[in-house]
Amino acid sequence: MRKAGIMIFALLICLLIAGCGNDSSQVSGPVTKAWDTDNATLTITPLEGSVPMQWMCKLRASVTLSSGYTEDISEYARWESSDKYIATVGNEEKNKGVVTGVSPGSVTITARYYRFSTTTPVTVSHDNPKSLGDSAKVVFLHHGVGASVWAGGVPEWFAEYNIRNGKDYSITELEFPKNAPYGWNNNPYDYWNIWVNHAGAQSFREEPTLENLTRNYNVVIWKHSYTVSSILPDAGNAGNRPYEKTMLNYKLEYRALKSHMRSFPRTRFIVWTGPAIVQGAAPEEQAMLAREFFEWVKNEWDEPGDNIYLWDFFELQTEGGNYLKSEYSAGPLDSNLNPDFSKRVAPDFCRRVVDVIEGRGDAD
Fold first, then answer.
1. Sign of torsion, CA 161 162 165 167?
2. What is the rounded average pLDDT of the residues 226-233?
3. Lowest mean pLDDT among 130-134, 236-240, 291-295, 310-314
4. How many helical (H) and strand (E) elements, i.e. helices and strands, does the chain have?
5. Is residue 213 part of a domain?
6. Which helix or strand (DSSP H or E) is residue 280 part of?
7. Phi and psi based region of residue 95 (left: phi greater than 0; alpha: psi -120 to 50; beta: remaining)
8. Chain-wide mean pLDDT for the chain?
């Protein structure tokens, strides 16, 4: 669904600019009567791109008015590649402006918006560089459910993978947050509170900030406790109480977390969806809201071409339902995992981490 209300000027329908150009019928988006169309400019960033084969990069298009006001119109532009056999560019809702390298060479990527158009050159290189190297350092932040998956064979899997493939990947587990002094809470509010609200070089209540973690690790993996799935309906001024577990707060906190993670482009982040809860541990309404939230995380919050990747743990646990399947749980009312399920999903988790390390994170 396209975003609405993002312009600070009055929005008009496309008919107001009929006759501006042949492309006007093929795009839609915000149009303002404040536009000085003779002086407005359309720009693609970055001005020149490079992408390895099978990798993706995200281009953005923005219009700047003569007043200096700039608006990102990436999702409304029509994108074109001069040679789809060298690189393609997405025009679907989630992939607007996402360039995928196909074969070595150079192409011109064009963005069109009403009568405006602009181009940028993109070079596709032959190699798929493993920029994290053969000795990437990974940290896995978790609580009980994550500890179960870890105990399902994660360190053993990496030890074997390193031997077979001549790598020296290291993966470390870290309870986050610790039970004291912060308290054993790791819902969206807590990640936002520690990493965004108290960002900086100093730890917060003995918990590492992203400034701390990104100095020591190439990949940071984080997840929530299963209590994340006990979502409450939005109510009144919930946005003024960020600690409340509402859909509104979750989305606000995730957007802020995404922005902050992107400020560390040399570090790759893997975010788990879920974990889910067992039936009987929460009413159906909360379980349905949990699925709605993690569908939003997958389909809207996550974007290809950046340094953030997902592992869809929620779907593995629920298999299309709203609850953790009873045969995967530790007990009828216990949302922790049983050992058999942990051993089954641990290799899937490890392969996902290796794909991100080795540059295949967007190749889902």
1. positive
2. 90
3. 236-240
4. 8, 17
5. yes
6. none
7. alpha
8. 85
Q: For position 32, what pLDDT does the model report?
A: 41
Residue 167 located in a structural domain: yes
- 113 vs 14: CA distance, rounded Å: 12
Distance CA 219, CA 358 (A): 11
In a domain, 151, yes or no: yes
Domain boundary among 125, 153, 178: 125
CATH number of the domain to which 154 belongs: 3.40.50.1110
Question: Tell me, what's the pLDDT at 131?
Answer: 56
Cα separation, 152 vs 314, whole angstroms: 17
* 193 shares its domain with 76: no
Beta strand extents in 90-231 (DSSP E only): 98-101, 105-113, 116-125, 137-142, 170-175, 219-222
Comparing 224-228, 236-240, 263-267, 277-281, the range with the smallest average pLDDT is: 236-240
pLDDT at 233: 84
Q: Report CA-CA distances (Å) from 319 to 175, 312, 316.
A: 27, 11, 6
Instruction: Give the C-alpha separation, 136 to 188, whole Å.
Output: 27
Tell me which residue range forms the domain holding 53.
14-125
Residue 304 lies in a domain: yes
Q: Are residues 146 and 243 in the same domain?
A: yes
* Domain final position from 66, 100, 125: 125
Q: For the chain, how many structural domains are there in total? A: 2
Whether residue 128 is predicted with pLDDT greater than 60 in this model: the reply is no
List C-alpha distances in Å: 104 to 91, 123, 351. Answer: 22, 8, 27
pTM: 0.69
For the chain, give the percent of residues with pLDDT over 90.
Answer: 62
